[in-house]
Write a structure and sequence with these properties.
alpha/beta, Rossmann fold, 6-stranded mixed beta sheet, 3-stranded antiparallel beta sheet, 7 helices, 35% helix, globular, binds adenosine-5'-triphosphate, ABC transporter ATP-binding protein, transport, ATP-binding, ATP hydrolysis activity, P-loop_NTPase
Length: 252
């Protein structure tokens, strides 16, 4: 059996002078899986990401990527934030080139690698434009391309579509699923939106009580490729109802 892409093993963590937020948590995400994480504000979603990338370290237990405790997890995990963080003075091509340039690849070589990808990522005709000339959805495509170019097999996406309007959001979700199927990466996706969590993921992890000793887990009863109308199937509505009740019970 292959190693888990990401594994928390008996992992405990609390901020200094605070009670533990996670207590002996055991979670494993398999290679190529799409997992959503959902939870109320303050439930620990961002902290879970900070632990995964190594910005925080567990107080007990371990975090493994591909079966190994890595000293520098930041270099092994791609991160896509809610805001696109594109540099306004750089063209789209130069923005996309940034992760390669940081790794020491020359600008010319980076451009050579990226130009064919622009088309693949639905960014045809944008290479010489600047971020301010692109819609929010297009900017997030560039941001995702940049995350993929980090070369990491595991991608952490932190509410990447929460600032988009409802229609753009749905088309970006469909687009993301196509990209994920093509790339074969492992994706962990934080969201506040139950429909989004269910539409995208194989499994949804729900952050409920604190300290978190286990993640409540829901397997999404949908086949792939996903279709928008699947969100209205009877099985899914039942799961959605349970998730909504679960989340509501966490809000005091
Ligand atoms: N640097 C810190 N020092 C101390 N406590 C912190 C720190 N960062 C977060 N916390 C606390 O840890 C808990 C979890 O915070 P976290 O940001 O992980 O939640 P979240 O689920 O991502 O919330 P949101 O959805 O609002 O982003 C909260 O009670 C928060 O106040």
């Amino acid at each position: 059996m292959s190693n888990s892409a990401l594994e928390f093993k008996d992992m405990s963590f609390g901020y200094p002078y605070e009670n533990d937020l996670f207590m002996e948590l055991n979670v494993a995400v398999q290679p190529g899986e799409f997992v959503s994480i959902i939870g109320a504000s303050g439930s620990g979603k961002s902290t879970l990401f900070k632990l995964t990338v190594g910005l925080e370290e567990p107080t007990r237990g371990s975090i493994r990527l591909d079966g190994e405790k890595k000293a520098n997890r930041l270099g092994h995990v791609g991160y896509m934030p809610q805001q696109d963080l594109l540099l306004p003075w750089r063209s789209i091509l130069d923005n996309a080139a940034l992760p390669l340039e940081i790794k020491g690849v020359s600008k010319k070589e980076a451009h050579k690698r990226i130009i064919p990808l622009l088309d693949e990522f639905g960014l045809n005709g944008t290479r010489d434009k600047f971020p301010s000339e692109l819609s929010g959805g297009m900017r997030q495509r560039v941001s995702f391309l940049r995350t993929v170019l980090s070369g990491s097999p595991i991608l952490l996406l932190d509410e990447p579509f929460s600032a988009l309007d409802a229609i753009t959001k749905v088309s970006m979700q469909e687009w993301l699923l196509q990209q994920w199927e093509k790339q074969g990466s492992t994706i962990i996706f934080i969201t506040h939106d139950v429909d989004e969590a269910l539409f995208l993921a194989d499994r949804v992890f729900v952050l409920t009580e604190t300290p978190i000793k286990e993640l409540k887990e829901v397997t999404v009863p949908l086949n792939r490729p996903r279709r928008l109308e699947d969100l209205y199937s009877a099985d899914l509505l039942e799961v959605k109802k349970d998730l909504m009740f679960e989340l509501r019970s966490t809000i005091t």
